[in-house]
Amino acid sequence: MRWCKRPSASGLITVGIYTGQQGDIVRKQIIPPFEAKHQRKVYTTQGVTLEQIALMRATRNNPKYSVMFIDDIGVELAKREGADRAIAAGRDPQYGAAAESSKLL
Predict the structure, then answer these.
(1) What is the separation of C-alpha 41 from the centre of its chain, rounded to a whole number of angstroms?
(2) d(CA 103, CA 101)
(3) pTM of the predicted model, to two decimals?
(4) What is the CATH number of the domain that holds 52?
């Protein structure tokens, strides 16, 4: 699930990732090559789906996260709450292309 806004002028991207081994893989194996390739700094927070949903709700009017990892049930809940429309409205075409090419999203 993506909850996106335009990256800051400093190039900082904030990503909510899973906890445990899945989060460790993202943090250690996916993010460093992405940062190097796209000259962006990625800041991560870790949480389980319900924590991620709570963060999305709390920042709905001023999104802080560029990407949010949540499971299938969380995706359905986010869709019902309109998060998918906020993603499309906030996407920066250059950021989207960079993230898609790195398979980060």
Answers:
(1) 13
(2) 5
(3) 0.69
(4) 3.40.190.10
Q: Which domain holds residue 70?
A: 12-101
44 phi and psi angles, rounded to 5 deg: -115, 150
| Most trustworthy range by pLDDT among 67-71, 85-89, 101-105 | 67-71
Identify whether 28 is part of a domain: yes
What band does 98 get if pLDDT is binned at 50, 70 and 90? very low
Lookup: tokens for 41: 């700094």
| Cβ neighbours of residue 68 closer than 8 Å, sequence gap 6 or more | 1, 2, 3, 15, 16, 52, 55, 56
Is 90 within the bounds of a domain?
Answer: yes
Tokens of 5: 């806004």
Amino acid at 58: A
Exposure of 73 by Cβ count < 10 A (0-12 exposed, 13-18 middle, 19+ buried)? Answer: exposed
In the chain, the number of structural domains is: 1
